[in-house]
């Protein structure tokens, strides 16, 4: 039903499943191995390492099964779509990084203008809506909800 | 009648001005979120959780707000199904099949009105069911020890996702991944740090809310960036939203059947609203046979799924509140809200926080009436909002998510966690691996481990304690039965689709 809901036809070449299976199998083995470092000072019937290890066993086995017998995947994006998704992540990662050093207002303004551009609006629309969005969000969070945001550093606000 | 006294007390709480106001806001926002294509109930509730925290609401008030949003999205989903032929959310998918043809024939208003009434009846039936059955389940579960709880968690993982996705392998992998992620942080029993790799931000574990917003809302944005939908709004006049007597009489039995089927689907672990609407529609079609004109704008084809998905939404609250085990994605998020407020749902909740439980139940009854009022006369207003352009809508969603998550702990680290989970959620969706079991693992892992370790220290390390009582054996048997039913259902679904 999920395939229908998102509107994309499932493709039969399920290379993605094989890769995911391999990655998860490695993860399960690594997590199992790393669990040996979970040593607590006192003796208990069940230490801190048991539960993660119990989870790793079925996870690893099923991941191997998925690798050998992959199921259906959705179609992966290509070209422009992929670029835009990468763009979204870069903009948002940058926003997370600059929010504190730049302050809320400048960071949000830049981020919202770029986001609106990413979703295909013209520059004019993006600038106008980005600016109003920034101001509305600031007023909403700062005054209506009473959440102190780092507005602009160095100005004492 | 204990229940009646509790319920009356609940109404006293729900009718407090603040709670009443929050229910109204929740209903309106929920309808709006449900109506906007691409923002389903899961996303809507996930987005609003940080805001609920920021309001500084009491747990009862926050729960009333979010559950009103949840019920509201179930109503709202039908609007874009009927007007745009795009389901506002996944449970509203079946409503497009007859709703859009009705709109094309100029009966859009009637479809909207009728589906609102069907939603109302479905949700009311489910809320009555919640009132009656949740205390019964609590009375049973109050005798559970740690071994039985462990069995219950196994039941939840054995069944969630399996019924709807059809691939047990992928659901289990998702659950395992979630459980593993849930162990990140300091072990609460011994203080040993697990999988933190020296990052002190991870000592408290992965923040549920940042993870949820990423998994659902951010991944949705990534999907939307590649998937350009052309909107095909009908230019037909909607017509009157008050359904006529004739179609009301014709649909009454359909609504009754749909509500019951949906309710049962909702209560079962691992099902939820999508299954509720799907089953109601399919079974109703089968029930009517040649007497129906399903697929060509039969009003009953709108009434059945809408009664079904609203009833299922209410039914799904039963296992969440009485056992602490959510039956669907959205109830999982409600569970995250409670856990973040240091409240553990389960049988003890009914004893320790009766105000909250019964206030919530009463708020659901009241919210339902509000929703009916919002959705019949005012439906045109919501239908107009659908014309909001994506380029504005999605950035607003993303920014609200960002600022909301940031303000929880004033931590930029949470934002990176949210982004990472956004990418994870996106990849999982592409792989057709359900993300709800991941959430469930993340949320329930701590409790599951706690109960396992307690059972093991009671028995002194003897594993047989896990299957030593009739109740736990019964729960495992029930899990196996539900898995078998899921396999049968998947087989039936395949046959049904082949025959379509």
TrEMBL record, chain A:
Residues annotated as transmembrane: 19-35, 50-68, 80-96, 102-119, 126-145
UniProt keyword Membrane, yes or no: yes
UniProt domain DUF1468: residue ranges: 19-150
Pfam family, one: TctB
Keyword field: Membrane, Transmembrane, Transmembrane helix
Domain of life the protein comes from: Bacteria
Keyword Transmembrane helix in annotation: yes
InterPro entries: DUF1468
Name listed for the protein in its UniProt record: Tripartite tricarboxylate transporter TctB family protein
Source species: Salinicola lusitanus
């Amino acid at each position: 039903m999920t395939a229908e809901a998102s509107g994309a036809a499932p493709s039969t070449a399920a290379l993605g499943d094989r890769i995911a299976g391999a990655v998860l199998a490695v993860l399960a083995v690594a997590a199992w191995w790393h669990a040996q470092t979970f040593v607590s000072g006192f003796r208990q019937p069940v230490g801190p390492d048991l539960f993660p290890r119990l989870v790793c066993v079925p996870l690893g086995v099923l991941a191997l099964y998925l690798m050998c017998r992959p199921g259906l995947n959705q179609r992966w994006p290509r070209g422009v779509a992929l670029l835009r998704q990468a763009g979204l992540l870069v903009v948002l990662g940058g926003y997370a990084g600059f929010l504190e050093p730049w302050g809320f207002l400048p960071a949000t303004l830049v981020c919202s203008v770029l986001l609106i551009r990413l979703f295909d609006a013209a520059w004019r629309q993006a600038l106008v809506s980005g600016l109003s969005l920034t101001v509305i969000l600031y007023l909403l969070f700062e005054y209506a909800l009473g959440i102190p945001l780092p507005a602009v550093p160095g100005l004492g606000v | 009648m204990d229940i009646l006294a509790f319920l009356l007390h609940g109404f006293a709480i729900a009718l407090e001005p603040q709670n009443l106001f929050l229910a109204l806001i929740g209903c309106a926002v929920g309808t709006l979120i449900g109506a906007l294509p691409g923002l389903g109930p899961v996303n809507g509730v996930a987005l609003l959780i940080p805001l609920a925290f920021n309001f500084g609401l009491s747990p009862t008030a926050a729960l009333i707000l979010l559950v009103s949003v949840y019920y509201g999205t179930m109503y709202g989903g039908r609007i874009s199904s009927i007007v745009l032929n795009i389901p506002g959310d996944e449970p509203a998918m079946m409503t497009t099949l007859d709703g859009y043809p009705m709109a094309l024939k100029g009966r859009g208003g009637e479809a909207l009105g009728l589906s609102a009434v069907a939603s109302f009846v479905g949700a009311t039936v489910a809320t009555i069911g919640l009132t009656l059955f949740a205390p019964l389940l609590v009375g049973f579960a109050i005798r559970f020890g740690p071994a039985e709880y462990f069995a219950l968690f196994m039941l939840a993982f054995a069944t969630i996702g399996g019924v709807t996705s059809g691939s047990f392998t992928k659901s289990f992998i998702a659950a395992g991944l979630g459980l593993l992620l849930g162990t990140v942080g300091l072990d609460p029993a011994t203080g040993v740090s697990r999988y933190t790799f020296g990052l002190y931000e991870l000592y408290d574990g992965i923040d549920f809310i940042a993870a949820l917003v990423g998994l659902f809302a951010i991944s949705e944005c990534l999907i939307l960036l590649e998937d350009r939908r052309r909107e095909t709004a009908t230019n037909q006049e909607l017509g009157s939203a008050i359904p006529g007597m004739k179609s009301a009489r014709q649909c009454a039995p359909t609504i009754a059947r749909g509500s019951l089927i949906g309710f049962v689907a909702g209560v079962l672990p691992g099902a939820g609203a999508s299954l509720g609407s799907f089953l109601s529609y399919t079974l109703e079609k089968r029930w009517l046979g040649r007497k129906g004109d399903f697929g060509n704008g039969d009003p009953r084809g709108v009434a059945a799924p809408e009664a079904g998905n609203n009833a299922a939404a209410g039914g799904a609250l039963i296992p969440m509140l009485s056992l602490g085990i959510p039956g669907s994605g959205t109830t999982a998020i409600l569970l995250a809200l409670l856990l973040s407020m240091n409240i553990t749902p389960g049988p003890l909740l009914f004893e320790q926080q009766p105000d909250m439980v019964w206030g919530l139940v009463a708020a659901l009854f009241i919210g339902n009436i509000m929703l009916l009022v919002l959705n019949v006369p005012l439906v045109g207003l919501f239908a107009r909002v659908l014309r909001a352009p994506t380029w504005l809508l999605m950035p607003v969603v993303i920014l609200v998510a960002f600022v909301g998550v940031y303000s929880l702990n004033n931590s930029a680290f949470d934002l990176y966690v949210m982004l990472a989970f956004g990418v994870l959620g996106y990849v999982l969706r592409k792989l057709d691996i359900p993300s709800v079991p991941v959430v469930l693992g993340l949320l329930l892992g701590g409790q599951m481990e706690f109960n396992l370790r307690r059972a093991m220290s009671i028995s002194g390390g003897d594993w047989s304690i896990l299957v030593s009582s009739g109740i736990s054996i019964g729960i495992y048997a029930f899990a196996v039965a539900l898995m078998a039913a899921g396999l049968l259902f998947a087989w039936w679904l395949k046959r049904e689709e082949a025959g379509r």
